[in-house]
Design goal:
It is a single chain. The protein has about 425 residues and is α+β, with helices and mostly antiparallel strands. The strands form five sheets. Strands 12-15-14-13-16-17 form a six-stranded antiparallel β-barrel. Strands 6-2-1-10-19 form a five-stranded parallel sheet, with helices on one face. A hairpin with a 3-residue loop joins strand 14 and strand 15. The two termini are about 15 Å apart. About 45% of the residues are buried.
Length: about 425
Amino acid sequence: MSAPIVAIAGGGPAGLMAAETLATARGDLQVHVFDAMPSVGRKFLLAGKGGLNLTHAEPRPGFDTRYGARRRAVAGWLDGFDADALRAWAAGLGIATFVGSSARVFPVDMKAAPLLRAWLHRLRAQGVRFHARHRWQGWADDGALRFATPEGERRVHCGATVLALGGASWPQLGSDGAWVGALRAAGIDVAPLAPSNCGFDVRAPAWRAAKASGWTAHLAERHAGAPIKPVALSVEASGGGEAFRRQGEFVLTATGIEGSLVYAASSLLRDAIAAEGEAIARLDLLPDRAIEQVQAEVARPRGPRSLATHLKSRLGLAGAKLALLHEVLEPAALHDAARLSAAIKSLPLRLAAPRPVAEAISTAGGVKLEALDERLMARARPGVFVAGEMLDWEAPTGGYLLTACMASGRLAAKGVLGWLAQA
């Protein structure tokens, strides 16, 4: 009797973790990883170019809250493989890690490539086989997996399948969301894919009626690429009060805003736009100064000095921050001390749309967890398990996304082991 074959479609962190879990648990399995690209782990490598953020040192249960509406489900994944387990796993590959000042966890050398090389070396030693340039196309009538390859279609029969095909962000690296149609055709419920950890396009303030959207040419040409820091960004809750407030930094783009602080609020802003047609992000341009201090300095007589010189000398406001004030406030408000002070502490930016999902760091939406059992097996397609970013959940940057992707891959593989044991 031949050894059971398990096919893993997708060679990102979730798929590779599923492969390792399977190969470690049962030496008799034939574990095959199929990936659309010439090599696996391409998004993983690109994400690590500026320093590979493996996970986060925030203790649980606070860690779990970062997964929003899916926190309870993701907590179950993390029970089997949490941040500490991920660090121990990396150490087993010879990759030491450290906790940075922001509590993010990085390899000591900050690089992704050494970790991926060591991981692939171990997987190959465990007997895992890799198949490049194999793009999953769905199922044939007899249940075989269909792959498009440079030599034509290839069909693979297997005892179980793990789909870890990623979302739709950074499609040039292989994850383009093309799997949605095949899963829906198979009766597996999929929520529409949407950008997560993304930038936004702005809408002009209401008083600038002649320009419906975007920055003025002056701001776009002079300040695109400029960092805005320090700054606090807040989003109001629908019932009043603040749903989000955090201090950090972001960057002006030619059409709007992006960067770490914007990404942290992106799910709230995206959902508000979907519900209301736009979202309001409020900026505190001087988060380290109380409103009373700002009011006192703005109200000081400035004599013959220009407003720009006055704000720079009294409050340190200049450059892109000053340009933002001119962009949002109508001319009369710039010369009204009370309105100007209020705007410095709470400048409203109207956001018209998130940037396209292809530009986002990650993807929201995907295979609904309700379409899967507790082992991440599709109820409509027994023997097919789903893991990683193609599931309907999202997480902020900071290592939370990668940790849960790998945890889901491990859980799906354990589901495969249970499924095969019952066969």
